[in-house]
Write a structure and sequence with these properties.
16% strand, alpha/beta, 7-stranded parallel sheet, globular, single chain, Rossmann fold, disordered N terminus, binds nicotinamide-adenine-dinucleotide
Length: 343
């Protein structure tokens, strides 16, 4: 019955993306549009404007609101085949300091959201989990079969959300894919959100300021380009009647000091930096081979880190260059770097 329906509309799905104007959400929206799906984006859209999707305005249904506004959430979910959830109000550092309130908020918000998905008859949920945090402290690569032992409340909340998805699947029959994402980087990442060392370092470099480096050669991360994440997450669209948990990383580890050296080489300029000890909220090693997911993407090549850093740097520099243009132009139109095609 469902297969017939999908066949009838050429495999196009109705997908609502929560947090779709954020860093990862906006790349996912781009991929959905490449594949001609019908997209709704739910985000705050402060000031009524998209921050990361201005290049695509008019090509998606836009619902501006807060997750706490249940009538708007219901509107965004009505008639949807799938809902993708990229909303998260905290960071590993912040959650370390305010564990109770952050775990309560993340779990509570997500549970209410899932309840609304059930009421709206959504078939499947896609969830942005954190490979860097759900596995907890590790000495080597983590596979989907590794026992998750999160210590940081951010990872504890993510794992709790994954378990909630399993409960909703058993109790209400709603399917879900969880993606345990590595250290995402790429164009559009906020330099101040506290979820991306690459964006933070680039911003500091461009401002001529000193970089703060937390950790050393023993702090190892799996850096994965945002566009690759979005392309691989489209896997969920292939079958709405299945649920899976996937690692989403390159399988390659890069130490914090190697990343610093790579910055120096790729960007060809001396760096001002100060090295600090690893923060207690940070894990040591996070390497996340996507072996399971890549079975479905034969020949898939991840963006090489040096090239990805270059692309990210060029984008950030261009956005910065156009920052003064964030004012009313001669035509009375608000010009932004993104509306100038820098996406
Ligand atoms: N960035 C990473 O390295 C990384 C790695 C692994 C997992 N993740 C997960 O991916 C998801 C997206 O991360 P991101 O880096 O794109 O974050 P982001 O902050 O760029 O995007 C989140 C979006 O959600 C929106 N939002 C937040 N709270 C909202 C609310 N109450 N109501 C409506 N909209 C709200 C924000 O406006 C923003 O556009 C998060 O769940 C994060 O935990 C991120």
């Amino acid at each position: 019955m469902l297969a017939k329906k999908l066949h009838a509309n050429g495999g196009r799905r109705k997908v609502s993306v929560f947090g779709g104007d954020g860093f990862l959400g906006s790349h996912f929206v781009d991929q959905l549009m490449v594949h001609k799906h019908e997209v709704t984006v739910f985000d705050r859209f402060l000031g009524g404007r998209a921050k990361n999707l201005s290049h695509a305005e008019g090509r998606f249904r836009k619902i501006a609101g807060d997750l706490s506004e249940s009538s708007l959430v219901a509107e965004a979910l009505e008639g949807q085949d799938m809902a993708a959830y990229f909303i998260c109000a905290t960071t590993p550092c912040a959650a370390w300091e305010r564990a109770l309130s952050d775990i309560e908020a993340e779990i509570g918000n997500f549970m209410r959201f899932l309840g609304q998905c059930v009421s709206a008859g959504v078939r499947k949920v896609v969830f942005a989990s954190s490979g860097g945090m759900v596995y907890g402290p590790r000495n080597g690569p983590s596979t989907e079969d590794s026992l998750p032992r999160p210590v940081n409340p951010y990872g504890i909340a993510k794992l709790g959300q994954e378990h909630l998805l399993e409960f909703f699947r058993m109790r209400h029959g709603i399917e879900a894919d969880c993606y345990r994402i590595g250290n995402a980087y790429g164009p559009r990442q906020s330099a101040t959100r506290g979820l991306g060392v690459v964006a933070a370092w680039i911003e500091r470099m461009l401002a001529g300021e000193q970089l703060d480096v937390y950790g050393d050669s023993t702090t190892v991360r799996d850096y994965v380009f945002a566009k690759d994440i979005a392309r691989l997450m489209t896997f969920s669209l292939r079958n709405l009647d299945a649920s899976e948990t996937f690692n989403l990383g390159t399988g390659l580890g890069t130490s914090t000091l190697d990343l610093l050296e790579m910055f120096r080489t790729v960007l060809g300029r001396p760096l001002l930096y100060r090295i600090h000890p690893r923060r207690p909220s940070d894990n040591t090693v996070s390497i996340l081979p996507s072996t399971k997911l890549l079975c479905h993407f034969p020949g898939f090549q991840f963006q090489e880190l040096a090239t990805g850093l270059r692309l990210t740097f060029d984008h950030a520099r261009a956005v910065r260059l156009f920052r003064p243009a964030l004012s009313v132009s001669a035509q009375g139109v608000l010009a932004s770097p993104l509306s100038l095609g820098l996406h």
